[in-house]
Amino acid sequence: MKKVVDTRIVNHDGEKITIGNQQFKREDILLDAPDFELLRAGDPVRVEHSAKSHTIFSVKRIG
Fold first, then answer.
1. Average per-residue pLDDT in the chain?
2. Distances 39 to 2, 14, 27, 45 between C-alpha atoms, Å
3. Each residue of 11-33: pLDDT tens digit?
4. Over residues 35-63, mean pLDDT
5. What sign does the CA torsion over 21, 13, 63, 26 have?
6. Of the residues 18, 20, 28, 39, which has the fewest C-beta atoms closer than 10 A?
7. How many helices (H) and strands (E) does the chain have?
8. pLDDT computed for residue 10 by the predictor
9. Domain boundary assignment for the chain
10. Under a CB-based contact definition with an 8 Å cutoff, are residues 20 and 48 in contact?
């Protein structure tokens, strides 16, 4: 089951983004992250993830 959440990027250190208290590399996102390299702390994003695990399906900038 997928869950969709609108949130903000907490941090982006060049290699990883932080969403909440979890860090993710580009390869951790299974399906889509078209703006991964351009994301910055504070950017609004829509995250699709598994409701049962920490699996991220997509991260897309919104707004």
1. 91
2. 23, 9, 15, 9
3. 999 899 999 888 999 998 899 88
4. 90
5. negative
6. 20
7. 0, 7
8. 96
9. 2-61
10. no
